Each structure stands twice: as structure tokens, then as C-alpha cells.
Amino acid sequence: MNVYKLLLGPVIGGVIAAGAINAHGYNSDSNIVEADVVSAIPVYKTVQINNPVQQCWQESVSVPQNNYASRTPEILGAIVGAGVGRLFGSGRGQDVATVAGAVLGGSIGRDQKYKYNQKNASVRYEERCRTVDNIHREERLDGYDVTYEYDGNIYRTHTRADPGRTITISVNVVPVET
């Protein structure tokens, strides 16, 4: 392998890096100096701040006391309903009335059971919670609009912090061709 080709890559990379450094203001001809601050005015911005809050409350829940699932009310309702249905009609119509009476009686028995259980239910309290946004606005310092003087000229910039009585600036010396 040719030694010149091996060294050519790093040399080209160094030249490109040096050009990039100069393009970003790192010039060997710059001077760091202090300029007098004429004014530094604080700049504020309004921000929204959310502090979520959890709100909780007690909610009543009805709990049936009788957990026994007896079918007696439905069975008795069906028997009574079948007996009453049997009193109507004759032949095939009597059979239909008996079945209808049994179904209706069973349904009424079931309704009475649930009605009774709801009357005898106990109340239990359960905690329920939800998160609610608590948003407020606040003024926050965003930086300073700074006016400074250098070499008899007035300049302006924005800084994050109060510069004080002087501000550090970089002065680049560039020859002017005439």
C-alpha cells in the first residue's frame, strides 16, 4: 500500500477541521475585551405551570346482606301462577294458561325477592378519586436585553444572565482590501 495514500486522509481531515473552526468564529485574529454596559433590561415570559391535584370523596354503595341465592320465591310464584292459570280455559287453552301462569308467577316471585333484598341491604362507603389539573400562570426571567458601548459605538445583545457593569466581547480584526 502506498504511504502517501495512507497519510492523505488525515491531512485532508485536519484541513477541513481547521476551516470549520475558523468558520465558527474561532479566529486567531480575535481579541477578548470588556465593553461598558449602558443598560441591562430584564425580559420576562409568562409560563403555564400545572400542579395536578388528587381529589377524593366517599361514595355510598348498597350491599345486599343476604348472599344466599334461594330460588324459593321463584318456585312458589311459579306453583301459585300455574294453579291460577289452571282455573282458566279447557283442553289445550287450559294448558297454555297454566304455563303462562307459571312463568308470570315465577317472575313476580323473583321481583319480590330482589325488592326484599334491596330493602335489607347495608351501605358501605368506598373512596373514589380523580386527578384534576391545577394550572396557574407565572412570570419567569427569560434573560436580559443588554445595550453596551465599544469603541464609541452602541451595540445590543440578549444574554441569559445580568452581565453587570461590563460585558465580555470578542473583537475580530479583519484586514480590509482597498
What's the arrangement of secondary structure elements?
Layout: H1 3-23, E1 30-50, E2 53-63, H2 72-86, H3 92-119, E3 122-132, E4 135-150, E5 153-159, E6 166-172
Antiparallel strand pairs: 1-4, 1-6, 2-3, 4-5
Unreliable parts? 3-26
Give the overall shape: rod-shaped
Oligomer: single chain
Tally of individual helices: 3
Instruction: Count all strands and give the number.
Output: 6
SSE pattern: HEEHHEEEE
Task: Estimate the mean pLDDT confidence.
Answer: 78
Radius of gyration: 46 Å
Helical proportion, percent range: 25-40%
Distance between the termini: 49 Å
Largest sheet: 4 strands, antiparallel
Strand order of the largest sheet: 5-4-1-6
Structural class: alpha+beta
Task: Give the DSSP E fraction (strand runs of 2 or more residues).
Answer: 35-45%
- Number of separate structural domains: 2
Mind explaining what this structure looks like?
By secondary structure, the chain is α+β, with helices and mostly antiparallel strands. The chain has two domains: 56 residues, OB fold (Dihydrolipoamide Acetyltransferase, E2P), CATH 2.40.50; 80 residues, no CATH class. The protein has three helices and six strands. β4 and β5 form a beta hairpin. The two termini are 49 Å apart.
Entry summary:
With 178 residues, the chain is an alpha+beta fold. The protein is built from three helices and six strands; from the N terminus they run H-E-E-H-H-E-E-E-E.
Features:
178 residues; alpha+beta; 2 domains; two-stranded antiparallel sheet; 41% strand; disordered N terminus
